[in-house]
């Protein structure tokens, strides 16, 4: 019996060793404190941010001030005991808040990357580089001189003045891209040319600054200048950027494409963005560069992908602006102790350091801007924006303190410089930019972007085209082909069939027939499409319980438009088009376009039709969003084919008889109709189409439209309409039904869910 306990001794010892090595979970008190800290910081930061907004200042000003007020400067001075309880001097507790703060930095840089126009930055690359070099060289030289002249009382080790001077020079050179980005967002300037150039220059400045920091940190650690550290840091940055914008661009796009096809939805898109960006941030951090650089770059790459969900980007922006960014800015202010700066010597030299920092950065950015071809006011704006140091300089100061390069006195001065420059940057930026004259090119670009943000056609990136190879879907393929030349879209042709199994003997033959029919259907569509270079027609064969369900399941994978042929099969008296098309239009998760060609079926179901000439496109309108969508589709096609678009509005005379009896005039109704068609004609012209307008009148709008189409030799009628349910069938109104049935030319009808 005594043998058993002796046998268990090794097991008990092993369990004890494992128990001793277990990592304890986060303590109750530590978790309580971090939750209180986050809620308090968020409350004050958002409250002051909204206050700043009301007095016409960017909210980031209030968010930065929140940390100062909650820090030792005010809250700690007024209520020292309570301050110590909420913000104890514990490294472990501080680390918890730092993690959330760093997430704020990374998320803010991801959002900034999504908003960054890489093509514009490339066009302005020379200017951005010159600004960055000016913003690095001048403050570095002035900062180095300042470090060499400061009294020994500000040095942690007077024997290491060279390292100290280099550290001060680096701190003077750094810019705070998160602060700059937040200010530009708050002022709604991030899409302006000056905003994009500021971001480009800021990121270049920051990258060079962090390379300098890694070199100086290595020098501080080793006590000697190390060329290997310099070459490694520079090489790592160049290699990362080169791989990211070549191979990385393709890889990110393919990953987003696969996730969109396999899973779909904005949630999946957001998850992939965060996974890739955090991985890239960890990679750049491991390379000795700034983690924010990796997050920013992958935000740019995701923003350039057609498959990235704009809804996911908007969600991320809301989370960042409403939670993480305020925490980041407020926690940066917590490190400031203004009371230490009130010592006379510290106060005087603190002002000197602040002046040198502002003048050096402002002068360098201004000179670089002027050399880069910017105007006087644009150069002043660049100097104002680049002057913000923010938490990045606080990080530099923290590193210097941990390495023993800075003493607490100098650390407080550098943190003060970071806060003050971040506070004065927004009003200076607003003032200088108010004097910047917008060029005609920039005004046109912004107008196009504004149009795109509200445009139906510009939001179409993926098109699903179910096909059986008939004439209607072939004509639809021609129309989609014209659209693809004006807007970058992906087109997927889908052959759907029922998976109801035939009897065993006929199963193999039925499978061969389906495969052959699918190939013929795809071939018929492919021959009608003349897609632009770089765009390919994707094909899919899917099966399910019924064809409509198969098509709708595929449509739920993030498509923006479903394009259908009106009568791919024999119609039914209970359906407008046929039972299949009617159900898809009714249940579609996105917009649909149904095309009725009014062309005779060529020999063989999948024989191709000739390219249909489009010289004149007619769009009836009643001024609704549905009509506007039709105008956009027509104008996009016309911009590619050179067709004339005529927008018509019909004044319905019977509806006006009683009113006319009183007013004896059609003038008010003509004026309304004229304004209506003019507004929609302007949309068409902005999309590059030649647009004409006509006002018709008659007792039957549909009859007047058909008469006009016949008389003018219209080649295509495009209708926008909302769907109504009548006894289970699709119903767009008697007028639309009449045009669909009696038109002498092809008709396309656009609907939105």
Task: Please outline what is shown here.
With 753 residues, this protein is an alpha/beta fold.
Annotation keywords:
3 domains, ten-stranded mixed beta sheet, 753 residues, single chain, alpha/beta, 65% helix, two-stranded antiparallel sheet, Na+/H+ antiporter like fold, Rossmann fold, elongated
Q: Output the CATH topology of the largest domain.
A: Na+/H+ antiporter like fold
The level-1 CATH class of the largest domain: Mainly Alpha
> If helices are DSSP runs of H or I spanning 4 or more residues, what is the number of helices?
29
Q: From the helix content, strand content and strand pairing, which structural class follows?
A: alpha/beta
Task: Please tell me the overall pLDDT.
Answer: 80
The CATH architecture of the largest domain comes to Up-down Bundle
Termini Cα gap: 79 Å
Strand content: 5-15%
Q: Can you list the strand order of the major beta sheet?
A: 3-2-1-4-5-12-9-6-7-8
Shape descriptor: elongated
Amount of helix: 55-70%
Point out poorly predicted stretches. Answer: 503-513
- What number of domains? 3
Describe the biggest sheet?
10 strands, mixed
Number of strands: 12
- Based on CA atoms alone, the radius of gyration comes out at 33 Å
